[in-house]
Specification:
Elements: E1 5-8, H1 14-23, E2 25-28, H2 37-43, E3 49-52, H3 60-64, E4 71-74, H4 84-89, E5 93-95, H5 102-117, H6 120-128, E6 149-153, H7 157-168, E7 172-176, H8 182-188, E8 191-192, H9 195-201, E9 204-207, H10 221-226, E10 232-235, H11 244-252, E11 258-261, E12 281-283, H12 292-310, H13 322-329
Protein name: Glyoxylate reductase
Family: Belongs to the D-isomer specific 2-hydroxyacid dehydrogenase family.
Domain D-isomer specific 2-hydroxyacid dehydrogenase NAD-binding: 110-288
């Protein structure tokens, strides 16, 4: 009996590769460099499965080139890179890797909050530039985190993990979500707010929503104008959740105190992006889940999702389980 064929266009940890190799024939591109579109199209031509990071887009062109494709396993919790309706119509199961990156991403989100509040990155550059010529009481004065008000936009797994960290700093926790989360309210003392009210009240607004049509440019000029002039915006979700041009304008005009970003509308960021020149902006290269243990766990989860789905079973992290029914009906 022939084994299913899986295309893996970017390097994955050995632990995940071994799981796939035990059950599948692998076409493997052993590099972290971006994969050209034509190589993706060639790679999926006879593939039953596709294991990818979120920078690879699975769109109509990819699907048209992949008549045998049954499973797409995303090494990420978000899956805005996948055309889920098209996958479902074709009976192709899509999976993601939730849970394993929750605490790591929450650590990074809270690190961004701390860094922008206490001007950590700005102060580091100041020392390394040789400009520090002695102590002054006004030198690099920042904002207290302990006892401040945090507004979490997106109270899912990661949002709740950030809220748990905020409790350790005795912060007042506000949240906005598509639907109320009574569990978070009871366990974390979180207070639900409509988005506009959260923006008006919070000292730190932390974005942790998935990217959907509803959340694209969720934070624009109108929303930024609602924030307090001494408040900070932290985006650890997806770049297009924020209207970047509106954010740049708000920062230039001093309508908010600063921003800390791990994600951007266009990645990688262009060298002439004004955000890179602003002292009151912390910019990281999309490293929310970037610890060795977490990246291994994500890839292993993706490999197990793939093996399970190719065996005809429902994988534990299927984002469109109805695709299995679609395939069964064909």
């Amino acid at each position: 009996m022939s084994r299913p064929k899986v295309y893996v266009p970017n390097a994955i940890p050995d632990e995940a590769y071994r799981i796939l190799a035990e059950h599948c024939d692998i076409r493997y591109r052993d590099t972290e460099d971006p994969v050209p579109d034509d190589e993706v199209l060639a790679g999926v031509r006879d593939a039953d499965g596709l294991v990818i990071y979120s920078r690879v887009k699975v769109n109509q062109a990819v699907l048209d080139a992949a008549p045998r494709l049954r499973v797409v396993s995303n090494i990420a919790v978000g899956y805005d890179n996948l055309d889920i309706p098209a996958l479902t119509r074709r009976g192709i199961v899509a999976t993601n890797t939730p849970g394993v990156l929750t605490e790591t991403t929450a650590d990074l989100a809270f690190a961004l909050l701390m860094a922008i509040a206490r001007r950590v990155v700005e102060a580091d550059r100041y020392v390394k530039s040789g400009r520090w010529d002695g102590w002054r009481p006004s030198l690099m004065v920042g904002r207290d985190v302990y006892g401040a008000t945090i507004g979490v936009v997106g109270m899912g797994r990661i949002g709740q993990a950030v809220a748990r960290r905020a409790r350790g700093f005795d912060m007042r926790i506000l949240y906005h979500n598509r639907s109320r989360n009574p569990q978070a309210e009871e366990a974390l003392g979180a207070e639900y707010r409509p988005l506009d009210d959260l923006l008006r009240e919070a000292d730190f607004v932390v974005l942790l929503t998935p990217l959907t049509p509803e959340t694209t440019r969720l934070i624009g000029a109108r929303e930024l104008a609602l924030m307090k002039p001494d408040a900070y915006l932290i985006n650890a979700a997806r770049g297009p959740v924020v209207d970047e041009s509106a954010l740049i304008e708000a920062l230039r005009e001093g309508r908010i105190a600063g921003a800390a970003l791990d994600v951007y509308e266009q990645e990688p960021v262009a060298p002439d992006n004004p955000l890179l020149q602003m002292d009151n902006v912390v910019t990281l290269p999309h490293i929310g889940s970037a610890t060795k243990a977490t990246r291994i766990a994500m890839a292993v989860t993706a490999a197990r999702n793939m093996v399970t789905a190719l065996a005809g079973e429902v994988p534990p992290n299927a984002v469109n389980p109805e695709a299995i029914r679609t395939r069964a009906q064909d």
